Amino acid sequence: MELVEAKRKIDEALERGRFAVVVGNCRVKYEGRAASKLSEGDRVLVIKNDGTFLVHQTQGMAAINYQGPGASISASMETAADGDSALVLSAFRSKKSGVKESIVVRFASVQACESWALKDDRKLQLFGSERQLSDLLMQDLNLIEPGLRPLQQESAIRKGTIDILAEDREGRLVVIEVKRREAGLDAVSQLSRYVSELAKRKEKKVRGVLCAPRMTPTAHAMLERDGLEFFKLDYVIGNPSAKIRGLQKKQQTIGAFSD
Amino acid sequence: MELVEAKRKIDEALERGRFAVVVGNCRVKYEGRAASKLSEGDRVLVIKNDGTFLVHQTQGMAAINYQGPGASISASMETAADGDSALVLSAFRSKKSGVKESIVVRFASVQACESWALKDDRKLQLFGSERQLSDLLMQDLNLIEPGLRPLQQESAIRKGTIDILAEDREGRLVVIEVKRREAGLDAVSQLSRYVSELAKRKEKKVRGVLCAPRMTPTAHAMLERDGLEFFKLDYVIGNPSAKIRGLQKKQQTIGAFSD
DNA sequence: GCTGGGAGAGGCTTA
DNA sequence: TAAGCCTTTCCCAGC
Questions:
Q1: Interstrand relation of A35-47 and A19-31 (parallel, antiparallel or unpaired)
Q2: Fewer beta carbons within 10 Å, N or C terminal of chain A?
């Protein structure tokens, strides 16, 4: 496809706010929070109405260069010193932090360039997030330990946010950290931070329980050394809901929906 | 475009290992580590040769549903009870962990469906990563403090990996943690973990220095309470290299390349 | 192969 | 707005 023709199509797509895809041989340059260069190769460029700008290589899941919503996108023709011309598509963005970012894609040739007016107002419904598991646990903390009563969910302390704060049979505070997947060192650090902060503030012993499907051995060692506890969180992911195994009370259907 | 025609094109693309893009009205269902549903709307599906499978909505940077390299992709026609037919594109993958994942995209209509044989063997060259900044600092630790001598870079201890291990004028061990962006509570936790682990092992006082462009206030408070230190890391990102401001020794050009 | 930890991480929620 | 922190995070490097 002729570069000029591709430019015309892109200009039209940008003007009309369409979703556009450009396929061709290009070089890519990025400057912003970091900097990068990518020399010549065939790539697929995705441009969305909201300013999203994605450069995809033929392999790998993540876009190799990207600009999020809010970028301003422009197209221009460029003629190099050797007389070769190129279609240049670029995305600029100024972040609130003051950082300016730019991606410049120089197409030497274009295999395809198309755009569409797409309509989509639906949102993804996700099941099995950490927040959902936390909500389910809140319904009956007896699963973790008989007599455990919930005090607060998502309570903010100076050093972060406690997933669930509870009280045990002896009236001790229990900090519960929920992880939807295997817990590592970072999770133990996090819990440890909350427990010591709370213990200092309340001037009494505070328990800490890490709820996760499993833990790495090193994390488990650190957990025990810090006097914290582990509770195996056994759950099943369904569609359209997640369930914790062993919960005695009838679980509310979270995230149920009609379609 | 006819659904059957789209299916034929997809089959051909899959067979020949091409990069394919499908645009149309669809529903999406995901089951795996979590589960999700997305009801009817116009979306763009990206299929790569390596099994990468991305569903993009009209807004937002991230793919709303995805499967990484290694997925097996298939296309089929389906006829619903009401007689409406659909083009079903799906991606399956079994992770090493044993988790099976699937994405099923049901297209009720297709606006465009195309594929290309793309060639690209180049890799992104990135400047200003944390590892690069660490490399630069290693060249002259005097910037942080006169008399500081490097002992080791990237040394693994039981509880993680220390960026830079050094020795100060008085012969004390100094753990240096480098962050390319603002450091938060997690960074302080990390450094704190390394320092206490090393102090316990060596049975002597160990210093900890957090090198970052800046810190959040809460993180700074925690740093001071833990007896750790902060060094403001002032750097500039260029293309094709990153430089730390104030480094006295001539900085090696890191990441320079010819193109 | 497990584990830890970075990433131009992005994005959401709450103080 | 800033800060914490979750993510189907992905990804790589080291042991």
A1: antiparallel
A2: C
User: Using CA atoms, how far apart are residues A41 and B118, in angstroms rounded to an integer?
Assistant: 8
CA distance B26 to A63: 23
Contact at CB, A41 and B222, closer than 8 angstroms:
no
Rounded to whole angstroms, the Cα distance separating A172 from A199 reads 10
Neighbouring residues of A29: CB distance < 8 A, sequence distance ≥ 6: A36, A37, A38, A103, A104, A106, B239
Best CA proximity match to B71, nearest among B105, B119, B122, B22: B105
HEC string of A46-81?
EECCCCCEEEECCCCCCCCEEECCCCEEEEEEEECC
Q: What's at A146, amino acid-wise? A: P
> Please, are residues B176 and B163 in contact by the beta-carbon 8 Å criterion?
yes
B114 chain-A contacts, CB cut-off 8 A = 112, 114
Q: How far is CA A39 from CA A16, A36, B125, B258, in A?
A: 31, 10, 9, 10
Alpha-helical regions (H) of B20-120: none
| A214: CB within 7 A of chain D nucleic strand | no
> Which tens digit of pLDDT belongs to each residue from A125-169?
999 999 999 999 999 999 999 999 999 999 999 999 999 999 999
Parallel, antiparallel, or unpaired: how do β-strands B173-178 and B206-212 relate? parallel
Contact (CB<8Å) A259/B114: no
Residues A139 and A251 sit within 8 Å (Cβ to Cβ): yes
Parallel, antiparallel, or unpaired for β B242-244 and B72-79? unpaired
Kindly report, residue by residue over A9-61, the tens digit of the pLDDT.
Answer: 999 999 999 999 999 999 999 999 999 999 999 999 999 999 999 999 999 99
